[in-house]
Amino acid sequence: MDISATIALAGLFVGFVVGLTGMGGGALMTPMMILLFGVHPLAAVSSDLVASMIMKPVGGAVHLRKGTVNRGLVKWLVIGSVPSAFCGVLLLRAVGNEEATQAVVKTSLGVALLFAATSMTAKALLDLRKTQRSRSAGLVDIGPGDGTDVRVKPVPTLLVGILGGLVVGMTSVGSGSLMIVALLLLYPTLRASQLVGTDLVQAVPLVASASLGHLLFGDFQLDLTTSLLIGALPGVYVGARVSSSAPGGIVRRALVVVLLASGLKLLDAGTGTLVAVLVAVAVIGPLLWVSIYRTAGEDGGARAGRHLFRAALTGRWGRRPADSETSDEARARR
User: Fold this and answer.
1) Nearest residue to 163 via CA among 225, 119, 98
2) Which of 177, 286, 290, 312 shows a CA-CA span of 20 to 30 A to 38?
3) pLDDT tens track of the chain, all 334 residues?
4) Domains of the chain, residue spans
């Protein structure tokens, strides 16, 4: 068996990112194998999925022990994703000859990576807007955010599972980078650790279904998968241990740049196009960030002013400024 040390090191890095954020498995490893190590697209997808089938349970088990998994969401996601992931592999097989299949995989992967980068950017901006509004208003958020008030929406969650499973079966991308963004949009009150934990656990049967399809009909390579796992298994364990108590915001922002570059290269974009897009992101991204930061701050300040005015008239404070004391605290002090 020919073990590659460089692929094992790449697996260590990707495994850590997956455990930390719930994202980046197929979105990083598959294009890395294609672009840096010259692996055929279908072999990269097949081997990455089989490696993920073994890697995902490690991170998922950590979050199950920590209690950061919403089992209701996992159930509906799995019902949709497991059959559709296997169907995604069958769609690839229906394409026909090997050359056409490789082209379809490469193009589909490029599109999926660009969509993942866009989704992750949207998630980061939504997080910023929500956080900055709360901070600018100077209020203590005592309601949403603990994940206990989440009510499962079966039909939308099922559709997310179906679409996500189809993409995963065809490209190996989506079990984290796409699904976790969809979960955030559907369930904004989930904590970051719950998002990661729920996504990692639902990805276990999803990736298993896609892996079975690729073992039967894909281009699985044992040497390649073993090299990935040597690095990925310890990486995902350490990343999951960190993510259960800390968010991975910085890593996610870095992932956006990697996904954009990888997606464009897989779509055969020229060097000039690639540089122009990355420069545009580097310039427009911070401007958009500052714009949302300021707008949210102004809106939050106005809301805080109205809140304090009404409270002064009625004596009913509800959600209070962060530096005010509660009635219980006042009574205790007296």
Assistant:
1) 119
2) 177
3) 678 889 999 888 888 877 776 665 666 788 888 888 888 888 888 888 888 888 778 778 877 888 888 888 999 999 999 999 999 888 877 876 667 777 777 788 788 778 777 877 776 676 666 666 666 555 444 333 445 567 889 999 999 999 888 888 888 776 666 787 788 778 877 777 787 788 888 888 998 998 888 888 877 888 888 998 898 889 888 877 776 555 555 556 666 776 787 778 778 787 778 778 878 877 776 777 667 666 655 554 545 455 545 554 555 544 444 444 444 444 444 4
4) 5-312
**Measured between alpha carbons, how far is residue 88 from residues 105, 172, 217, 288, 331 in Å?**
11, 10, 11, 36, 63
Q: How far apart are CA 113 and CA 177, in angstroms?
A: 9
Q: Which amino acid type is present at position 237?
A: Y
pTM higher than the cut 0.85: no
Token pair belonging to 273: 């196009």
Closest CA to 129 of 310, 297, 243: 297
Residue 291 is encoded by which pair of tokens?
Answer: 């714009």
